[in-house]
Design brief:
Helix 1 crosses helix 3 and helix 12 runs antiparallel to helix 14. The chain is globular. It folds into 4 domains: about 110 residues, Uridine Diphospho-n-acetylenolpyruvylglucosamine Reductase, domain 2; about 110 residues, 2-Layer Sandwich (Uridine Diphospho-n-acetylenolpyruvylglucosamine Reductase, domain 3), CATH 3.30.465; about 180 residues, Vanillyl-alcohol Oxidase, Chain A, domain 3; about 50 residues, no CATH class. The protein has about 525 residues and is α+β, with helices and mostly antiparallel strands. Its cofactor is FAD. This is FAD-binding PCMH-type domain-containing protein. It comes from Gossypium aridum (American cotton). GO terms for molecular function: FAD binding; oxidoreductase activity.
């Protein structure tokens, strides 16, 4: 009986999709129900966190992989008709799985078929299902002196990356990805296809860092490419506690956001727990938009403590630096940028913080001891300053601009399946996050939207009130949260586009004051 009911439901939904779609190929050829042999592989092919591959993870009633805008329009209509939630997935890198998991009955709109990249005269139109690797590769085919400021993980999907802000190792020079977006095409809740002009500046503002899935389905983005030198320089230096890592990291805090904006120095901090050695290892990874001689001179003057020699400066093209930052050996073919699957999948949890005052040496040593005690979580420090401090925090929904020295990413990964391994690892990263409370931003304790973290608060089944959403919303968006709510209430008054951290919708903007 149950199987019969499911088959009837599937048939009804498919008929609805067919009735409202005009595209060729037909929508039936890109729709997958659990009875289809390709359902599981389609679902799992873009799950980037193994925590959400378990048998207990809620599964969608069906998946649509649109190849035409009418497939998207039909999916919206039929989700409304059948009372289903829609999850929108471009690359599947949502750290807490919100782009493909829901407790309510739902479907997945998976955009991986929409991945064209058209580069033309210093700009590019890129579809949301493209990966950053595909975007970078397409740029490199057209120009040796153009690039784009975006993340260094090639398998990340453009749609989620851009709509959450999108940062990378050129942000100190050029800002975020969204600081270089000049147009977009979006399907709204009524099925209208809108560009910047027709959607209006408020909605265009909101999707540039406010999380696009709260407002509609962004099909594509027009971006302004940036000029890069034919030769850039990279380096990677490792230091241990015994080699003075405390002094070096302490000094890094004072120069990383103030040094030449052509230079970006990331620090990755890892606990070392060997039988006869408990320590901290720091990796300093750099990108300089210039040659090795210029970098060597700059570092000797501003940051001699790191001990970077000219021999450690590696010159290459900008596109080759993408491979370096992705840990590919020098000489690897650029074709790896077209691989849509990561080199390995993991169970993982991430969190984020912003540091606005340098942490003292004594307190850094306390952090090292806590990391050694916990054994697993790592910290990645990403410097701000430069262009990031020049853009006002209200210009885009992403508010973390001037006043931030660096951002912290907390990371824990594990290999074992099961509740016990997951619980232990989640406890470790939460304990480190709690320990860091005195050293990070306050009122609010800020977080980065693209480092998705449901620990900071969620909407119950997406139906948030303002007072519920503001708890996590202010952490991601600070004072921009109110404007995002205003835009959401105007463009999606029925709150169709909802998930656990979607922007809440109010019947009228005036009710905010009452609430």
């Amino acid at each position: 009986m149950a199987n019969s009911d499911h088959l009837k439901q599937n048939k009804t939904i498919l008929q609805c999709l067919t009735d409202h779609s005009i595209a060729s190929p037909s929508i039936s050829s890109v729709t997958f129900f659990p009875t289809d042999p390709s359902f599981t592989s389609t679902l799992q092919s873009y799950i980037r966190n193994l925590r959400f591959t378990s048998t207990t993870t809620p599964k969608p009633l069906f998946i649509v992989v649109p190849s035409h805008v009418s497939h998207i329009q039909a999916s919206i209509i039929c989700c409304k008709t059948h009372g289903l939630e829609m999850r929108i997935r471009s690359g599947g890198h949502d750290y807490d799985g919100l782009s493909y998991v829901s407790k309510a009955p739902f479907m997945i709109l998976d955009l991986f078929n929409l991945r064209s990249v058209i580069v033309d005269n210093g700009t590019a139109w890129v579809e949301s299902g493209a990966t950053l690797g595909e975007l970078f590769y397409a740029i490199s085919l057209k120009s040796k002196t153009h690039g784009f400021p975006a993340g260094v993980c090639p398998t990340v999907g453009v749609g989620g990356h851009f709509s959450g802000g999108g940062y990378g190792n050129m942000m100190r020079k050029f800002g975020l990805s969204v600081d270089n977006v000049i147009d977009a095409k979006l399907v709204d809740v009524n099925g209208n296809v809108l560009d910047r002009e027709s959607m209006g500046e408020d909605l265009f503002w909101a999707i540039k860092g406010g999380g696009g899935a709260s407002f509609g389905i962004i099909i594509s983005w027009k971006i302004k490419l940036v000029s890069v030198p034919e030769i850039v320089t990279v380096f990677k230096i490792e230091k241990t506690l015994e080699q003075g890592v405390t002094d070096i990291v302490h000094k890094w805090q004072y120069i990383a956001d103030k040094i030449d904006p052509n230079l970006f120095i990331r620090v990755v901090l890892l606990p070392v727990n060997k039988k006869h050695l408990q320590s901290i290892k720091a990796k300093f990874i750099g990108l300089f938009l210039g040659n090795g001689q210029e970098l060597s001179s700059l570092m000797n003057e501003a940051f001699p403590e790191l001990g970077l020699s000219f021999d450690q400066c590696i010159e290459m093209s900008w596109i080759e630096s993408i491979l370096f930052w992705s840990n590919y050996p020098k000489g690897t073919s650029l074709d790896v940028l077209l691989d849509r699957q990561p080199q390995q999948e993991k169970y993982l949890k991430k969190k984020s913080d912003y540091v606005q005052e340098p942490i003292s040496k004594e307190n850094l040593e306390g952090i090292w001891n806590k990391m050694i005690e916990l054994k697993r979580p790592a910290l990645t420090l990403n410097p701000y300053g430069g262009k990031m401090s020049e853009i006002l925090e209200f210009e885009t929904p992403f508010p973390h601009r001037a006043g931030n020295i660096y951002k912290i990413q907390y990371s824990v990964t594990w290999k074992d399946d099961g509740v016990e391994a997951s619980g232990r690892s989640l406890d470790q990263i939460r304990k480190l996050y709690d320990y860091m409370t005195p050293y990070v931003s306050k009122s609010p304790r800020s977080s980065y939207l693209n480092y998705r973290d449901v620990d900071i608060g969620i909407n119950e089944n997406g139906n948030a009130s303002y007072s519920e959403g503001v708890i996590w919303g202010r952490k991601y968006f600070k004072g921009n949260f109110e404007r995002l709510v205003q835009v959401k209430s105007k463009v999606d008054p029925g709150n169709f586009f909802r998930y656990e951290q979607s922007i809440p919708c109010l019947g009228s903007w005036k009710s905010i004051t009452a609430e």
